[in-house]
Amino acid sequence: MLVCASFQRKGFHTARSHCKKRTDCGAAPGAWSQVAVRKVKAAGTDLSSPVGFVLGVDLLHIFPLEGATFLCPADVTDPRTSQRILELLPGGRADVILSDMAPNATGVRDLDHDRLISLCLSLLGMTPDILHPGGTFLCKTWAGSQSRQLQRRLTEEFQSVRIIKPEASRKESSEVYFLATQYRGRKGAVRQ
């Protein structure tokens, strides 16, 4: 879930539109990866611009996309997936972590919310190893009782944290995104 882009399709704009290494977690079916490939020119079709890198990660199969590398099926909560992400990222770091992940819904609102927050926190736990200082973290969540816990953690690690509700999201939907920018980097984080 490392991405750096101006995601106009979903109504997001990151502060670091010049970023060239992106990872899209929860990438299936691949629409965000398509936007990321275009924004970082990862397909290499513009010879006058530097070529970026897009890595998509998902439990589900994703059809190939020129300019993107997909790691699937893969579970981002599995340490082996984290290690594989590090191996695939040029330089071992990304400029942005983008998560559009969601657990399979049970229909029990509180349980589904807690499971999604847990996914976001797992991904946040990977930031010291994967995200460049100054990087951006964007994750989808559903509004609920545990949202404050996630927001507190993001505020500890990023200079700025905003809650965004994309125009494309249904008005009655509890779906919101946390956009955290300017990653401070965790003191004592050790690279493996």
Automatic annotation (TrEMBL):
<dbReference type="InterPro" id="IPR050082">
    <property type="entry name" value="RNA_methyltr_RlmE"/>
</dbReference>
<dbReference type="GO" id="GO:0008650">
    <property type="term" value="F:rRNA (uridine-2'-O-)-methyltransferase activity"/>
</dbReference>
<keyword id="KW-0698">rRNA processing</keyword>
<protein>
    <recommendedName>
        <fullName>rRNA methyltransferase 2, mitochondrial</fullName>
    </recommendedName>
</protein>
<dbReference type="InterPro" id="IPR029063">
    <property type="entry name" value="SAM-dependent_MTases_sf"/>
</dbReference>
<keyword id="KW-0949">S-adenosyl-L-methionine</keyword>
<dbReference type="GO" id="GO:0005759">
    <property type="term" value="C:mitochondrial matrix"/>
</dbReference>
<keyword id="KW-0489">Methyltransferase</keyword>
<feature type="domain" description="Ribosomal RNA methyltransferase FtsJ">
    <location>
        <begin position="19"/>
        <end position="182"/>
    </location>
</feature>
<dbReference type="InterPro" id="IPR015507">
    <property type="entry name" value="rRNA-MeTfrase_E"/>
</dbReference>
<dbReference type="Pfam" id="PF01728">
    <property type="entry name" value="FtsJ"/>
</dbReference>
<dbReference type="GO" id="GO:1902775">
    <property type="term" value="P:mitochondrial large ribosomal subunit assembly"/>
</dbReference>
<dbReference type="InterPro" id="IPR002877">
    <property type="entry name" value="RNA_MeTrfase_FtsJ_dom"/>
</dbReference>
<comment type="similarity">
    <text>Belongs to the class I-like SAM-binding methyltransferase superfamily. RNA methyltransferase RlmE family.</text>
</comment>
<feature type="active site" description="Proton acceptor">
    <location>
        <position position="140"/>
    </location>
</feature>
<keyword id="KW-0808">Transferase</keyword>
